[in-house]
Design goal:
68 residues; single chain; 4 helices; mainly alpha
């Protein structure tokens, strides 16, 4: 376990992988049947921004969860 405020290299690697997946988001979403929500439309329209936001939220959650 890493103290709050310290980078977890495993998490950083996972978040980098998430950020790097932007190129496949549209193809993956095209395979999901049914109507899309506004949030999914926004992710489809700008996958880089959406995945960056997701990665930031995960990192913020980790920081809050590990805080003393």
């Amino acid at each position: 376990m890493h103290p709050a405020g310290h980078v977890d290299p495993d998490l950083e690697l996972e978040l980098a992988t998430v950020r790097a997946a932007a190129g496949r988001v549209r193809a993956d979403l095209d395979n999901v049947p049914g109507p899309r929500t506004r949030s999914i439309d926004a992710l489809y329209d700008d996958p880089e921004r959406g995945l960056e936001r997701l990665a930031d939220e995960v990192a913020a959650y980790r920081e809050a969860a590990m805080a003393p």
